[in-house]
Amino acid sequence: MRVGEVWHGAADLVLGARCAGCGRPGLGACAACTAAVRGSPPLLVAGLPDALPVVYAGGAYTGELRRLLLAAKERNGLGLVPLLGERLAAAVAAWALEEGSGLTVVLVPVPTAPAQVIARGVDLTAALARVAARRLRRAGLPVRTWAGLRLCRRPQDQSELGRSGRLANLVGAFTVARALPMGQVVVVDDIVTTGATLREAVRACVADGRLPAAGATVAATARTGTRRGAR
Ligand SMILES: [Zn+2]
Description:
By secondary structure, this protein is of the alpha/beta class. It contains eight helices and nine strands. It has two domains: 39 residues, no CATH class; 186 residues, no CATH class.
């Protein structure tokens, strides 16, 4: 048995810790789930509202990626942030390869309700953006984060709303709290479903005089495609 396996076994015994992707004993994500998530190719997301720029995702919202993202959102899975942030970095890199200009990329996380930040102990989207920016800088890309979007009113819970309901629910919910830095703005979120949240983030940036170049997320639900122009 390798040393790492001993530690994972001990984590199960002492902490009751299990991989959030498959339930095997261990801390964070196990090697198999990590490999599965890393092996998922980034996607150009199709079928989003016309008001959005191109949106890339680090993978489809299925299997291990879905389970790990859910765990990070619902069970305070801070240990999963590095792996999930890596997928966000892959999405940004996929966009930059296709149409980046070489200017500094400014990752703008969508704002999280303060109550949710308190409940999770972390602003998950902002933390994912910071991890992604660090990884991309290590790869030599000029990337920074700017967490300057704020909620200016509280939207109702989106889970019961359809697509048009979500779009209407969010309009005017975000505002730019201070001047956006120079560079290519990429709005980021953990997941894209209807595109309503990203669209509101884009609207807030545009209202401040800046048109985002892209959106990027860790994962995307249905209607994903890899072809450019498929949107
Ligand atoms: Zn696993």
